[in-house]
Amino acid sequence: MSIDLEIARAATLRPIAEIAAKAGIPDAALEPYGKYKAKIGLDFVASARADRPRGKLVLVTGINPTPAGEGKTTTTVGLGDALNHIGKRAMICLREPSLGPCFGVKGGAAGGGHAQVVPMEDINLHFTGDFHAITAANNLLAAMIDNHIYWGNALGIDARRITWRRALDMNDRALRSVVGSLGGTANGFPREDGFDIVVASEVMAAFCLAHDLADLQRRLGRIIVASTRDGKPVTAADLKADGAMAVLLRDALAPNLVQTLAGSPALVHGGPFANIAHGCNSVMATTLGLHLSDVVVTEAGFGADLGAEKFLDIKCRLAGLSPDACVIVATIRALKMHGGVAKADLGREDVDAVKRGVANLARHVENIKKFGLPPVVALNRFTADTEAEIRAVQEAMAALGTEAILCTHWSDGAAGTVELAHAVMRRLDAKEAAFQPLYPDAIPLAEKIGTIAREIYRARDVAIPDSVLAKLKRFEAMGFGAAPICIAKTQYSFSADPTAMGAPVDHVLPVRDVRLLAGAGFVVAITGDVMTMPGLPRVPAAETIRLDEQGRIEGLF
Amino acid sequence: MSIDLEIARAATLRPIAEIAAKAGIPDAALEPYGKYKAKIGLDFVASARADRPRGKLVLVTGINPTPAGEGKTTTTVGLGDALNHIGKRAMICLREPSLGPCFGVKGGAAGGGHAQVVPMEDINLHFTGDFHAITAANNLLAAMIDNHIYWGNALGIDARRITWRRALDMNDRALRSVVGSLGGTANGFPREDGFDIVVASEVMAAFCLAHDLADLQRRLGRIIVASTRDGKPVTAADLKADGAMAVLLRDALAPNLVQTLAGSPALVHGGPFANIAHGCNSVMATTLGLHLSDVVVTEAGFGADLGAEKFLDIKCRLAGLSPDACVIVATIRALKMHGGVAKADLGREDVDAVKRGVANLARHVENIKKFGLPPVVALNRFTADTEAEIRAVQEAMAALGTEAILCTHWSDGAAGTVELAHAVMRRLDAKEAAFQPLYPDAIPLAEKIGTIAREIYRARDVAIPDSVLAKLKRFEAMGFGAAPICIAKTQYSFSADPTAMGAPVDHVLPVRDVRLLAGAGFVVAITGDVMTMPGLPRVPAAETIRLDEQGRIEGLF
C-alpha cells in the first residue's frame, strides 16, 4: 500500500456539513454526495457572489515539469492548510482528476503525503459524476449531428467538415481514429470520426469558464461542430442541442466541496486539459471561493508558461478576476534536471547543475512579474537536497528580489508551509499586485500569439503558415477577434521542443494549426503534436487495482 | 408542461432519511445523494439479509405491449403505495431508466400521474451515476483488450473473434458499427467494433445478478471477451481487468433509495435490457427489500412471456428467490389492439375486439400458473373504457379462476389500487404459491429453449440450425450446461413475428444464434433482429429539452 493511501486511510474525516459551516456555507445550500462530499447549490453561489466581500486570489504554478516531479497540487493544499493554520480563512480550489489516467500510469491527482484532499478514492474515481455528465453532453451533441444528417441534413452539414468528436473518460488509443456509421442504410452515412478523453472536450472548457447556468447554455449553443459545403459554421444551437446539453450539466455545474487532511475546505471542480484547453478549475468554484474566504489558493496545469499564462490571460480575463500573488513551485531535483542531470543521477549533490537549472525558474519569476503579480517561490523539499543546493536557489531568487521558501508539507502537513503562508501574506498585505493580462483584447489574433511567444516563451519569432493566418483572419471576420489565445505546446520546455530544458533562447515557435472554440471563447494555437486521447501503458495500473476482502480499493495509487 | 411533470413538481418530498427510517434503514447506512436520494451501504445490506426476516415477493408483469400502453410501472408504484396505505410494510423495486431514450422518443421511466417515483428528473437523468459507472467498467475492459493486443498480444487473442463491444448510455446509431484503431501504428491494429447502449452490456446483467461485491468481481472475471485462434475463450480475468472493473462498480452496487409521491420507499437499482438480458432490477435491491418489508413489489420488462419468464427462470433461480404472487397488467385499449383494432379507432367501444384480445391476457395468466404462482389481473382503467368492455375481461378471467381488478392509480394514487392490494394480499395470505422454475438446471440447453418456446410461447416447434446447436454443445462442454436461457425475441408477440398479436398458435421459433454470457451466468438465444443500440428519431426529444429562466428542466417528459 502506498504511503499516500496509508495516510489518507488513517485520517478521520469530518462530516462535510461541518466543513461547510466553517466555510460559511449553510446546510440548506448543500447537496450531499455521501458523507464527505457535497455540491453547493447554484442559488447559494449566486447569492454569495452578490452579497459577500471578495477575498484575495493566489495562483500556484510551477517550473516546467520534469520526471523528477514538482508537487504543485501538494503545495496548493499545503499552502491552503497553512493559511488556515495561521488564522486566515483560506479556500483551496483544485481541478477534478480524470478517471482515464487512474488506470494508466499516472495514479491519482488529489495531492499526496500530508497534503491531500479527501476522500481521495472518491475524488479519483467517479467523484460527484461531473465528468460523466460532461461526457454525456459531448456525446449527445455528436449523436445529434449524425442524426441530423441521417434524417435529411436540412442544415447542409458537410460530413467531411465535422470537427466535433465524441468523448470518453478513458485512456483508449483504439478510439483515436475510427470510421463510424458503418453497416448499411439504417446506421447512417459512414464518415471519419474519433474520440477524445473528456478533459479535452470543448464542453469541459465551456463548463469551466461559465459564469452561471444561463451563461453555460449560451456557450454550449455557440459551439461550432461543423461547417456547410460553402464554409458556413454549424453550431450546437443550430442543431437545437444546447438545451439538452445544459440540462445534462445542470447539477454538475454546482461546485464540489471536500476537505483536506487538515480539515481545510476545498472546492474541486472541473478539469480541462492544459494544452488544448486552459487547464484551470471552474470559474464557478473560484468565484464562489473568493466570496467565502480571505484567500483562495488555486493551481493551474503544467508549468507557468502554459498554466499561469492561460489562467491569467484566459480564465482571469474572461471571468473578470484579478489575482493578487503567484507561488511558483520548484524542487532541487527538477532544477538539476533542467541543469542537465539525468534522473538516475539526482541523488548526488550538484550545485552547478542547480545553478544552471535555476534559469528555468528565474524566467518564470520574471514572466509572472510581467502580469503585475508578486511571485513567491516554494521550494518543495526532498530529503536528499543539500544546504548548498538550496542556497544556490535562494541566492538566485534573492538577486531577482523574490523570496524562495522551503516547504515540507508532504511530510509535515500545514506546519511545513507556514513560512510560505507568511511570505504570501506579506505580498498580499503589501498590496503589490497590479494585474494586467499580457495583451489587450483588441489586437489581431496573430499578434496575440506572437506576444505570448516572445514575452513568455522568449521565442525569437513565430512561424505561422499563410493558411493558418487566413484561418485567424476568418475567425476575426466571424466576430471572434477579441478572443484570447490558448497555446497547445509541450509542457516540458519554454519552446516547442520538449528536449530543450532550462531557459532556451533563439527558438522559433511553429504554429501548425488554429482552432476556434467559440463555446469556450478562445482560439487554440497548436504548436506540436497534441495528444487528446492517451493510451494505456504495457502494464496498466488497472491490472493491479482491485478490491480486498473488506471491499476496500487496492492499487489505485 | 406534461401532467406527470406538473404533478411531480407540485409534490412535497420528504427528506430521504425520513423515508429510510420508515423502512427500517438507520441513518448510518445511508449515503445521501442530494436531499431526496440515497445509496444504502453494502454492509447494511449484508446485515439486513442475515438478521431480518424475509417478506413476500410480488412480480408485476403485463400482456404483450402495444402502442396503446399498459402502465406496468405505474401499477407497480400504485400497488406498493396501496399496500402501505392498507397498513402493510411494502417496498417497491424498480429498474433505473436509461439516459439514452430520454433524448429520443420514450420520455422518462419513473411512472406517471399520481403513481410516480421522485425526484423524477434526477431518476431519469444521471441519478446516482450507476449507469455511468457501468459504462466506465465496460469501456475499461474494451480498452484493456485493444491495449493487450497493442503491446504484443501475449494471450493470443484473435482480433477477428473479439465479441466484447464498447458501450455508451446514448441513442446513437452512428456507433453501432465502427472500425477502430485507425490512423497508424501508434493507434493499434484496425478492427471492426461497435457500441451498445449500456443497458445491453453484460456488465449491466452481471451487476444486476450479483449477490454482493465479491460475487460481482468473480462474475466480471468470468466475462468472455474474445477467443484465441484455436477457439480458447479469453476472459476479463485473463486480461486482469476484473479488479479495476469491480472498483469502478463498488459504490454503484449499493442500492438506491427514493420515494413515491405517496411517500413509499422505493429501491431503484440496475436496469438491464429485457431482450438481450433479463430485464429486472438488481438482486441487491430485491433481496434488501425483502428483508426490510412485508411485501416487495417489483416489475420486469416487456410482457410476461419475456419479462416474467426471465424474472422467474433467471433472476429468481440464480438468486434463490421464491416469489409469492404475480400481477398481470392489461388495459382495455391494449386488449382491443390485440383483438385487431387500430390505434386510431381505440376511442370506440368494441366488446368483440376485447373478447378476441383477451386471449393474449388469458395465455399469460395460464403461463404464470405453470410457475406455481397465483396471478391477479390489474386492469389499468382509462376514461373511455366502457362497462361492457370491462365486464368482458372480468368474465374471461373469472372463467380462469383469476380476479381482474380495476385500477385508477394514475388519477387517484394509492386509493385507486387499494382493491388490487387487497386482492394481492388474499393470494399471499392464502399461501397459494408453490414456485418452481419452468425447467430444471440439468437438461440440455437446447431442450431449455424448446421448453420455453412450447410452454410459454406455445410454439409448435423450435428451429435451431446445426451450427447453433454445435455452439450450445460447446457451451455445455465449457461447463455452462446448467445456465438458464435468456431469449431475445420481439416483445410484441408470443411468437417471433411482431405482427402476430393476440394468442398466436402453430408458429415456429427460429433461433438464429446463441451467446454465452458467462459473467451474467446465462445463455442468450437470439430469435430475430436485436437492436442493442437505438437511434434518435427525426425530431428527438432533446431538441425541446432545455432549462427555463429559473434553471428548471423543460421538455424532459
Automatic annotation (TrEMBL), chains A, B:
PROSITE patterns assigned: FTHFS_1 (PS00721), FTHFS_2 (PS00722)
EC number: 6.3.4.3
Keyword Transit peptide carried by entry: no
Gene Ontology molecular function: any one: formate-tetrahydrofolate ligase activity
Coiled coil: none
Catalytic class of the enzyme: ligase
Pfam families, sorted: FTHFS
Pathway field: One-carbon metabolism; tetrahydrofolate interconversion
InterPro entries, alphabetized: Formate_THF_ligase (IPR000559), Formate_THF_ligase_CS (IPR020628), P-loop_NTPase (IPR027417)
Keywords: ATP-binding, Ligase, Nucleotide-binding, One-carbon metabolism
Catalytic activity of the protein: (6S)-5,6,7,8-tetrahydrofolate + formate + ATP = (6R)-10-formyltetrahydrofolate + ADP + phosphate
Name of the protein in its database record: Formate--tetrahydrofolate ligase
Organism: Sediminicoccus rosea
The gene coding this protein: fhs
